[in-house]
């Protein structure tokens, strides 16, 4: 009996001790799961590059055209001694006036560029001068300096313009060489006026290059390169390559679209020679080919579109919203031609003017809105007066008198032009 009780007691002890051991082992072991039950590893999110929204700032905006004007001194009558200022032609009011106060500059090398919000005043001199970049309201008021440039640099915007992302400005910048045997050094910069910082985005070689516009939020720049197999060595004189004509057969110019954030460049077009052989306008490349055909190629495309066959050796003047403007010789005279982009018709304008002692085709200065054009209607010699909105009179050189011409007026002499008046001036 004692042996039976002892056996039962031992069995109960072993059973009682075994249960916790089994429970402990189960909780310590990792749970068995199938691959389908396992949670997937977190996928790293791709890095998104910031997108910069670019727009172009040219010599006119939708409202009007800005031109530099050197004023005569009212006492000495010396040209330019009255300062250099801005002459503004308003398209909708058909008026012209002086905006802003004239600047006292070493020369008349003033460039004016405008978008829908601001007017930019750009001036550069020589190696001992200090470049100027000012921004004002469109009426010339509230003018302020955007950056303190060192001596010996030039803002090489030329007649092209600047780009903006709403905060920073992008333009060509030149370090003027102090040695005629060393070319000036050009680079593309981003200037943030608020942060008062300027950084280099890219540099150009000794053949320089240009900022031509913007496209798909990228900067359009040109680069010119010399083939490695060129047997002629570049000659440097007067701060540039002086034997470009000799090198021409081995030069190639390329149009590139540069991302202002990453610096990556995409080649859009290449041509032989020192300059881009097509006009860049409205997101396309335009030209008149040797076969007298008007040709267009949209940026990003590889093929040309032949728009029309021209009657002779016409040259491309401007690409506007509704028309492509061309000039050419016919019947021993020069004529203006309008190629309508909507219906594909080419029409010769009968409008002519007596300018400079010659019978000429009417000169178109710029587009003044869709289907409207700023033209030279008359030309006078001698000094004339131009006023600002406060009535201050300025003396200017014998200058063209403008008019606004509709497309219909350019094609029909019976349709009147709208003369551009000068409020406040006699």
Overview of this protein structure:
With 426 residues, the chain is mostly beta strands. It contains three helices and 35 strands. The protein has helices spanning 2-28, 244-247, 407-411; strands at residues 55-57, 64-72, 79-90, 95-103, 110-114, 119-123, 132-136, 144-145, 153-155, 162-164, 169-175, 185-192, 197-203, 211-215, 218-226, 236-237, 240-241, 251-258, 265-272, 279-281, 284-288, 293-298, 305-309, 315-319, 323-330, 333-340, 346-348, 352-355, 358-361, 364-367, 372-379, 384-387, 393-396, 400-406, 418-419. Strands 1, 9, 10, 11, 12 and 13 form a six-stranded antiparallel sheet that branches. A four-stranded antiparallel sheet has the order 5-6-7-8, with no helix packed on it. Strands 14-15-18-19 form a four-stranded antiparallel sheet, with no helix packed on it. The longest helix has 27 residues, at 2-28. The protein is globular, with a radius of gyration of 34 Å. The model is unreliable at 1-38 (pLDDT under 50).
What does the average pLDDT come to? Answer: 89
Tell me the major beta sheet: 6 strands, antiparallel
Query: For the terminal residues, how far apart are their CA atoms?
Result: 142 Å
Rg over CA atoms, rounded to whole Å, is: 34 Å
- Count the beta strands: 35
Shape: globular
- Report the total helices: 3
Low-confidence spans: 1-38
What portion of residues belong to β-strands? over 45%
Helix content: under 10%
Structural class: mainly beta
């Amino acid at each position: 009996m004692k042996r039976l009780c002892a056996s039962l007691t031992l069995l109960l002890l072993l059973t009682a001790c075994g249960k916790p051991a089994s429970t402990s082992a189960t909780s310590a072991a990792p749970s068995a799961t199938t691959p389908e039950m396992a949670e997937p590893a977190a996928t790293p999110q791709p890095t998104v590059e910031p997108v910069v929204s670019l727009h172009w700032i040219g010599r006119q905006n939708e409202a009007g055209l800005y031109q530099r004007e050197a004023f005569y001194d009212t006492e000495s009558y010396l040209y330019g001694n009255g300062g250099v200022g801005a002459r503004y032609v308003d398209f909708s009011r058909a008026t012209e006036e002086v905006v802003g106060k004239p600047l006292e500059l070493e020369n008349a090398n003033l460039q004016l560029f405008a978008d829908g919000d601001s007017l930019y005043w750009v001036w550069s001199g020589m190696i001992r001068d200090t470049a100027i970049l000012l921004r004002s309201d469109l009426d010339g008021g509230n003018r302020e300096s955007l950056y303190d440039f060192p001596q010996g640099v030039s803002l090489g915007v030329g007649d092209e313009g600047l780009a903006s992302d709403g905060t920073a400005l992008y333009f060509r910048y030149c370090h003027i060489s102090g040695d005629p045997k060393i070319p000036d050094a050009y680079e593309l910069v981003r200037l943030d006026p608020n942060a008062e910082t300027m950084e280099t985005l890219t540099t150009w070689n000794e053949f320089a290059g240009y900022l031509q516009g913007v496209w798909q939020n990228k900067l359009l720049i040109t680069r010119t390169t010399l083939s490695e197999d060129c047997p002629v060595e570049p000659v440097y004189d007067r701060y540039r390559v002086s034997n470009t004509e000799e090198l021409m057969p081995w030069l190639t110019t390329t149009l590139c679209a540069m991302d202002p954030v990453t610096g990556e460049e995409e080649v859009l077009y290449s041509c032989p020679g020192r300059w881009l052989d097509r006009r860049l306008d409205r997101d396309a490349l335009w030209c008149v080919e040797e076969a007298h055909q008007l040709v267009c190629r949209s940026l990003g495309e590889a093929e040309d579109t032949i728009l029309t066959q021209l009657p002779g050796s016409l040259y491309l003047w401007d690409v506007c919203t509704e028309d492509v403007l061309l000039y050419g010789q016919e019947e021993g005279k020069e004529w203006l031609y309008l190629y309508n982009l909507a219906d594909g018709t080419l029409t010769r304008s009968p409008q002519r003017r007596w300018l400079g002692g010659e019978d000429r085709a009417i000169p178109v200065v710029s587009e003044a809105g869709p289907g409207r054009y700023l033209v030279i209607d008359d030309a006078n010699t001698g000094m004339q007066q131009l006023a600002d909105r406060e009535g201050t009179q300025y003396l200017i050189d014998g200058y063209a008198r403008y008019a606004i011409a509709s497309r219909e007026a350019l094609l029909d002499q019976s349709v009147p032009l709208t003369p551009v008046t000068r409020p406040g001036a006699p």
